[in-house]
């Protein structure tokens, strides 16, 4: 789960993809691109990530993918980035050859 706030709203959603550059948030109520957000989420190792981000893109629901928004990190600590990098390195790739 991931929580985020904007100047006027509080949202919760599910993170389906995280990297050191940002996060995809699955939600039926995405913010518009360019919106600044404050993010917080807990990694499997228990580390709580707090970051500032900006919505870069939104996606409508499709047969193959949920709706949501891509948020780029614009202010995040080095410690948080290190924990995210460690988490990403421990997971298998999401891309599969058919």
SSE map:
Blueprint (H helix, E strand, L loop, with lengths): L1 E4 L4 E9 L3 E5 L9 E7 L5 E12 L8 E9 L1 H13 L8
Gap between N and C termini: 30 Å
Query: Average pLDDT, to the nearest integer?
Result: 83
% residues in beta strands = over 45%
Radius of gyration: 13 Å
Q: What is the SS-derived class?
A: mainly beta
Name the helicity range: 10-25%
Order of helices and strands: EEEEEEH
Number of strands: 6
> Helical segment tally?
1
Which spans of ≥5 residues are poorly predicted at pLDDT below 50? none
What characterizes the major β-sheet? Answer: 6 strands, antiparallel, barrel
Strand adjacency order, main sheet:
1-2-3-6-5-4
Shape: globular
What does this protein structure show overall?
This protein is mainly β and 98 residues long. The protein is 13% helix and 47% strand. The protein is built from one helix and six strands. It has one helix at 78-90, and strands at residues 2-5, 10-18, 22-26, 36-42, 48-59, 68-76.
Quick take:
The chain has one helix at 78-90, and strands spanning 2-5, 10-18, 22-26, 36-42, 48-59, 68-76. The chain has 98 residues and is mainly β.
Describe this protein with a few key phrases:
98 residues; mainly beta; six-stranded antiparallel barrel; 1 helix; 6 strands
């Amino acid at each position: 789960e991931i929580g985020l706030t904007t100047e006027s709203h509080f949202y919760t959603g599910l993170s389906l993809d995280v990297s050191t550059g940002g996060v995809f948030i699955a939600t039926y109520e995405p913010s518009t691109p360019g919106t600044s957000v404050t993010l917080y989420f807990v990694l499997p190792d228990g580390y709580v990530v707090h970051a500032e981000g900006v919505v870069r893109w939104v996606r409508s629901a499709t047969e193959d993918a949920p709706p949501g928004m891509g948020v780029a990190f614009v202010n995040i600590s080095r410690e948080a980035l290190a924990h995210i990098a460690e988490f990403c390195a421990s997971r298998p790739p999401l891309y599969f050859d058919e």
